[in-house]
What does this fold into?
Amino acid sequence: MTEKETKNWEKFFRVTNSDEFDYAKFDPDATPGLSDREEAKAIQAVNTERMHDLQERLYAENKQALLIVLQALDTGGKDGAIRTIFGPLNPQGVQVTSFKVPSAQELAHDYLWRIHQHTPPKGMIGIFNRSHYEDVLVVKVHRLIDEKVVRKRYAQINAFEDHLQENGVKILKFHLCISRDEQRKRLQQRLDKPDKHWKFSRNDLAERARWDEYVEAYQAMLRNCSPASAPWYVIPANKKWYRNAIISQIVADTLAKMDPQFPPPEEGLDKIVIPE
Ligand code: AMP
Ligand code: MG
It folds into this structure.
């Protein structure tokens, strides 16, 4: 993969506001730029090394943070992506937060309250498994808020993300896009394998029945919350190897652009000898 092709990748999957992003035209099976699993694994291995080194610098520098937001329909692969891509990093430098149905205490506050508590501090990589975007996705699909409020929330989320980025938290947002048929296969696998039963919930079927409404909600969100400063990346995620290679590439490139530096050493270290 040449430098130029890599850059195209990043552009290829980036959503822009002016783009009328069309979910129906997006192919979750596509693997542009990569021919097979072996090539993808090799690219991922290189990126794991890069992320590992850059994460240590980020931690040592202690001046900026990276927040990675993962959103997908059920079985989209958020858990697998986190395990496979970020598993090899130093756990001291990474914090993962999974957002579930809000608690009574969380519901008593504005929807960003619980989110802000988990944004990564300086030096850390934060990973959101679901996020504030649930509040314009599942909440919209179930009509817990009306369209006027949804539109206000797009603006509030854009402002919130601006605020974070202006305060040293770089944001990367990935939507793992799978097809309806791939979801069927993955749900069926959860039923077929006893050690995956814990991941299956009858509620997943009720949500699956609302597939079209979710697609509509995702499409509106992707179009409205992709300013140039914090765009969404929509990743074809039917093939896990492709998903992992692309995300690792974009994360490693982003960390490299953040260019974290080791702090300057104390003066005179070269004269110190550790006494017996
Ligand atoms: P899972 O990720 O499979 O553990 O499921 C978490 C569940 O929590 C999903 O069904 C989400 O839709 C739901 N959830 C997460 N955030 C919210 C939210 N803000 N409002 C309502 N449901 C949510
Ligand atoms: Mg689930």
Notes: The mean pLDDT is 95. Residues 140 and 150 are 7 Å apart (CA to CA).
